[in-house]
Amino acid sequence: MSKIENERTQAFREAFAKNSKQVALQRGVVKNGIRVSAENVQAHVENTPVFSIDLATGKVANQKQSGRCWMFAALNTFRHKLLTTFQLKDFELSQNYTFFWDKYEKVNYFYENILATAEQPTSSREVAFLMQTPQQDGGQWDMIVSLFQKYGVVPKAVMPESSSSSNSRDLNNYLNKLLRKHAVLLRQMVAEEATAEEIQANREAMLQEVYNLLAISLGTPPEVFDFEYRDEEKNYHLDQDLTPQSFYEKYVGVNLDNYVSIINAPTADKPFMRSYTVDMLGNVVDGKQVKYLNLEMEDFKALAVKQLEQGESVWFGCDVGQSSTRDSGIMALDAYDVEDLFDVDLTMTKAERLDYGESMMTHAMVLTGVDVINEQAKKWKVENSWGEKVGDKGFFVMSDEWMDEYTYQIVVRKEFLTPEQLSAFEAEPTVLAPWDPMGALA
Question: Which PANTHER family match (predicted)?
Answer without folding.
Answer: BLEOMYCIN HYDROLASE
